[in-house]
Amino acid sequence: MTRSYQILALYGDGIAYEIVPEALKVLDAVSRVYSLNLEIIGPYEFGSKYYAKHDMKEGWDPEVTRELLFDADCWFKGPVGLPQYIGKHGHYLPINQRLDQDLYANIRPCRLRPGVEGVLKGREPGDIDYLILRENTEHMYVKAGGTLSRAGETEMAVDNYIQTRKGCERIIKKGYELARSGDYKGRAGAPVDDKRRLTVTAKWGICQGDNLFKAVAEELEPDYPDVETDYAWIDAWSYWAIMRPNYYDVCVMPNQYGDIMSDMSGAIQGSMGLAGSINAGDEYCYAEPTHGSAPDIAGRGIANPTSMALSIGMMLNWLGDKNNDQSLKDAWKGIDEAIDKVLVEKKVRTPDLGGKNSTVELGDAIVEALLTS
After folding, report:
1. Which of 108, 138, 339 is nearest to 241 (CA)?
2. Which of 11, 35, 151, 299 falls between 20 and 30 A from 352, CA-CA?
3. Mean per-residue pLDDT over the chain, rounded
4. Phi and psi dihedrals of 157, rounded to 5?
């Protein structure tokens, strides 16, 4: 009997209401093609706008209980956050779920796909294919800090970034494992030489936490002789990622650096609309596109749903690994290949890719490619 899985779906803000429905269509199609038994729960209301409308007391629909979040096999959401609600932080923020479920690995692929014109001169599909592996529970986003205010004026603000041995060890080990497996990439190894390579990048020599990050990597390096270990300061890496992106395979870095560099990588691969991601731990996982809520185009029906489709595909792959279920891993490959098929045909494209098609039309094209594969 085919095993059943519960997948929780949440909306978000802005273009979430346009791209989440497309993700549901893709899940339905992939279930039929690969005989998956997926029970979709939701999608439920969620996000900063919902939080503000409910007097800063509820960040999501009351149906979404803590038990549901932890009992579901995995979950996904659209982008969250709107400019008018900056500073009105609450429990709707995804950073809270990353900590609550100990989702220590944020996996963000950067791949120049067939049919997509990149921004780097002379780079062709296949030349760029690396992962940003971002530590997801430490560094600048642990909210260890505060402000000093006098007479109603904020005079000082302090943020402390934190790195622990445990946090460094597990994310670096995950980097080595991903370099070995080639998961979430077009192929294993770096495009320039096919070498499985882990690039460790931070700002050691300047920041104490980053000194620890590098020291832990050096301790672990001998345990992975089949993977080449490369070290680069984060500022130097940001240069080399543009000058020689084909050298990189898996790049592991502390939280804030990974947040910033993955956005740069979104540009390198041609559009943030192609940038999927998952937040993964050993027991739990949720998927979300790398990009934000794009309020400037929300409601116009032109957002690229590919990032959302790629994210749920990655989520299925993680679930397949956890449960030793090859059908889920095959479903991820099917989604990945269907997207490449649509892109290389250059018939259906949203404006970010130079086309004039709608969100729904691109979603339909991905579904059609899945069903006819």
Report:
1. 108
2. 11
3. 92
4. -135, 135
